[in-house]
Design a protein that fits this description.
alpha+beta; elongated; VirC2; VirC2_C_sf; Ribbon_hlx_hlx
Length: 188
Amino acid sequence: MGIKLPGQAVPKWHELRDRIGTEKKLTGYDGDPVASAPDTPSGPPRAALRIAPAPEPADTTSKAEKGTEGPSSTTTATVVLKALVRFPEAGQSTLYDEAVAHYGEKRALRMTLRSALAAYDSALRAGAVTEALPAYLSRSDGIRVSRAMSAAGFAKASALFDPLDMMPPATLAGDICRNAIVWFFARK
């Protein structure tokens, strides 16, 4: 059985589309007819409409340079890191080992990463981290995480780990998270 072509009495698609478009009546949510739009547009032409100005770049001066001590009124740009973080082997950090004993492996790694990434981000922005650290001993399994990091810290970290800007985003995010944990373990 083959495909049957429509007969000559069947209108072409563009004719149907045009016919349906003229017969269609606009109705509001309550079913009442809606007044049609005037043929001539009122107001400025569409090209003159502006949606919103582009946001200003984040201020990179530190609080010490500004001379203020309170919370900043400007919002800082953040980058979301999505990565697979592997579980560290036991004995790398006493704090992590105690957290695993108390909270379990997954929760302990999530809690450690939250603290580690915040401290690592601050250290990157302050210039305390100048090189990539050796990876910690890890197992083959891990957890997928999604963590926010400041754009300034991310820029410095990506310059350390991917100076040629060739790494996939997930690999770069994983390297940043692993280095944050190593940096955190060395200080706790």
